[in-house]
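thought: fold this chain, then report.
action: predict
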Amino acid sequence: QVQLVESGGGLVQAGGSLRLSCAASPRTFSMYIVGWFRQAPGKEREFVAAISRSGGRTYYSDSVKDRFTISRDNAKNTVYLQMNSLKPEDTAVYSCASDQRPSLWSTPSTTENGYTYWGQGTQVTVSS
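observation:
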């Protein structure tokens, strides 16, 4: 069983930055791909970013590319989402998700059904 806990959300002005963290257990977290998704009020959940087990492959949605950076520290069982140049349309609940993959180089999924375990989410609010 994998447990994921997000942190780092909050209120920020447009143009500002936040760093989200996704802390995971168990200690074999390095065997899991991780994705970040977000859901704004009245909208469906959407893909934001994903990272492979090794951290060598990363994927982003077009809406956050060049502004957000996903990374991981397997020694700390943590995945990060650095969010820069935030816009009001980035306001949403951000959730991390994980799924076990056999290969170190397995391509991380960009869809919800590619993930088994989900965190509770953290609110990000960007004011204009």
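thought: worth noting. The longest strand covers residues 92-100.
final: tokens above.
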